[in-house]
Amino acid sequence: MARSIADLYWVMFGAAVIVLAIVVGALVIAGIRFRERPGHQARQYHGNNVLELIWTVVPTLMVIAFSVLSFQRLALVNDVDSGAAMTVKADGQQWVWNFQYPLGFDPSDPAGKDDISSLNQLHLEVGTPVIVYISSKDVIHAFYVPKLGGQKDAVPGRETSTWIQADRPGTYAGQCIEFCGAGHADMLITVVAQSPADYDAWLAGALKDANRFTSPDVAKGKQLFTTLACAGCHTIQGLTKATIGPELTHIASQKTPIGGVAGLDVNEANLIKWIGNAPGIKPGIVMPVFSNKYGGPLDDATINTIVQFLLTLK
Ligand code: CUA
Predict the structure, then answer these.
(1) Is 120's pLDDT higher than 60?
(2) Ligand 1: which atom is nearest the Cα of residue 181?
């Protein structure tokens, strides 16, 4: 899909360059040849039927041709149901993307109950068309990975859909492309396209890690997480269910930085910093200040205990 959109783009770009060359060329030639100079009387024209016909008919035909080509692409972009082998849910919110992978990749069950999830990073199998069901938890965002497909709005209260396909393994950069507030520029998407074997290995690891809340070392942090404000906003599969903040089921193995803030990799120190004063790091964010150093309700020890628990969520 991305290739067919790019091809059309180059056709339009080429046509635009040709039109620009003709118009500017004619303007420059006319300006030089017919400029005012001594002893040279300007001739007066009152219309030229041939010229006017040309510059009416040619652009009209071009616009019609581009419309037909665009609608063909649009049909391809919207042809979500043909041949997709995998479905993914993409939820946008200020300012992260949460991706959910239904097990078994059953297209008739996009909300399969054993979902695994990842934040800002979407894993898929190379060569496989993937349906992306897109929604938003707050304002309008837009899902766009230019090298894989067209863009699609994420609208609160509604589910839109598109499909993407990566033909080569690798990572593909994408971004929210609808201005959605102070953190819009940080709302990045990384698509990781893997060979079937690599993908299966990643999936197996993610599944295995999805349920391990047993360590006594983290029992206290787990209890704090479920009883304090954390649980009101964040889902951890099998533990809490909330939709205001991003899901944290695999926060400890997340490859993208916390909150999508460049340089803020997931580690102990950064998690403590983030929970303590997230608005200080990412202005405009819904998550409040928690450290009592900044006027929040929690002391250092409490935050640290919660972070020790979060670090087990691989
Ligand atoms: Cu979300 Cu821009």
Answers:
(1) yes
(2) 2
User: Exposed, middle or buried: residue 181 (CB in 10 Å: 0-12, 13-18, 19+)?
Assistant: middle
Ligand 1 centre from 139 Cα, in Å? 8
pLDDT tens for residues 70-96? 998 888 877 777 666 788 889 898 888
Mean pLDDT of 113-123: 73
CA distance 113 to 98: 16
Whole-number Å distance between alpha carbons of 161 and 152: 7
* Ligand 1 atom with least separation from CA of 94: 1
Question: Which whole-number Å values give the CA distances from 73 to 78, 149, 164, in the listed order?
Answer: 9, 11, 14
Taking the centre of ligand 1 as the mean of its atom positions, its distance from the CA of residue 23, in whole angstroms, is 38
Q: Is 187 in the pocket of ligand 1 (CB under 6 A)?
A: yes
* Short-list 230, 244, 238, CA closest to 286: 244
Give Cα 280 to chain centroid, integer Å.
24
